[in-house]
Write a structure and sequence with these properties.
This protein has eleven helices and eleven strands. It is of the alpha/beta class. The chain has two domains: about 5-140 and about 260-305, Rossmann fold (3-Layer(aba) Sandwich), CATH 3.40.50; about 140-255, Rossmann fold, CATH 3.40.50. The strands form two sheets. It has a seven-stranded mixed β-sheet, sandwiched between helices. Strand 1, helix 1 and strand 2 form a beta-alpha-beta unit. The N and C termini lie far apart (about 60 Å). About 45% of the residues are buried. Bound molecules: 6-O-phosphono-beta-D-fructofuranose.
């Protein structure tokens, strides 16, 4: 293992830079050269390869986004895209690859096996925390803290005006951000894609609150909730409860930005070093993760297939506390 390549792919996550720094510095520590691929898989197809030295990753551990840039690349899933990428890797004498991203990144790495025999190790970077094989993905802790900070602010104005707020958070297929931030912000209800939205129960909570003159409400809605997101559910509720002054806030991409939390920096640093050591140890097509504070390795197929189950007891907390 003389030269390794590293890239960031899919949606960015706070802590990607910290993981990149750890990959580059530990690669150098173990006597290897490290090549960075710009713009994710798009850059791999187009041959955007650069040398990374220790100085290149100075002063980035605290920065959100990714200095390598990232992309979502439908082109990579074509035969010609993968062939072009494989040729560039060969021309640059790459011996192993480290991919930073989420489920789409690991699915692409698995499909690429047919065109490229190089070993690949994945580092879980996504705010969604929707991969099996790690307790926490890099970026999740920062994102939930961003959400809680925002909802605290919304609560102030909701309370001042006696309003009902629907706050939409990210998570196309995963309700983890919604669930945890609803507990931490004391939301009255949470709607997530993993469980069927019980509109009647929501109406019941609102009715009960109205009768006891409850002044403000926060309902957290994951963007992928099958009821159709915050706007759709707010419209339904408005029809039934015209007495409520209802507002919708969509937090959007602020959840992906910002300086990574201490927790995300530490996980990123640990996993960056473990990823390099995994390549040296001849591992391949596995995601590195941390479960119960121990490093674990999960084949890409399992990491993306199973996802993490929603803990029903956490879901029940909001119901109990808002009754
Ligand atoms: O996968 C991370 C994520 O932030 C999802 O929660 C969200 O649905 C999606 O990315 C948004 O992606 P994009 O920035 O491409 O719109």
């Amino acid at each position: 293992m003389k030269r390794i390549a590293v890239y960031t792919s899919g949606g960015d996550a706070p802590g990607m830079n910290a993981a990149l720094r750890a990959v580059v510095r530990s690669g150098i520590y173990y006597g290897m050269e490290v090549t960075g691929i710009l713009n994710g898989l798009e850059g791999m197809i187009d041959g955007e390869f650069i040398n990374l030295d220790a100085a290149y990753v100075s002063n980035i551990i605290q920065r959100g986004g990714t200095i390598l840039k990232t992309s979502r690349s439908p082109r990579f899933l074509t035969k010609s895209g993968m062939e072009a990428a494989a040729t560039h890797l060969q021309n640059h004498l790459i011996d192993g690859i480290i991919a930073l991203g989420g489920d789409g990144t690991f699915r692409a790495a698995t499909a690429f096996k047919e065109y490229c025999s190089l070993p690949v190790i994945g580092i879980p970077c996504t705010i969604d925390n929707d991969l099996a094989g790690t307790d926490f993905t890099i970026g999740y802790d920062t994102a939930i803290n961003t959400v809680v900070e925002a909802v605290d602010k919304i609560r102030d104005t909701a309370d001042a005006h006696n309003r009902l707020f629907f706050v939409e958070v990210m998570g196309r297929d995963s309700g983890k951000i919604a669930l945890i931030s609803s507990i931490a912000s004391g939301a009255e209800a949470v709607l997530i894609p993993e469980s069927i939205t019980d509109t009647e129960h929501l109406y019941h909570i609102l009715e009960k609150g109205w009768n006891r003159k409850k002044s403000s409400y926060i309902i957290i809605v994951a963007e992928g909730d099958e009821a159709g997101g915050a706007v759709a559910i707010a419209n339904k509720v408005k029809e039934k409860f015209s007495q409520y002054d209802t507002r919708v806030t969509i937090l959007g991409h602020i959840q992906r930005g910002g300086n990574p939390s201490c927790m995300d920096r530490v996980i990123a640093t640990r996993l960056g070093v473990v990823a390099v050591e995994s390549l040296i140890g001849n591992r391949s097509h596995e995601m590195v993760g941390i479960i119960n504070n121990k490093v674990v390795y999960t084949p890409f197929n399992n990491a993306v297939k199973t996802g993490q189950e929603i803990d029903e007891s956490l879901l029940k907390l909001t119901t109990i506390l808002s009754s």
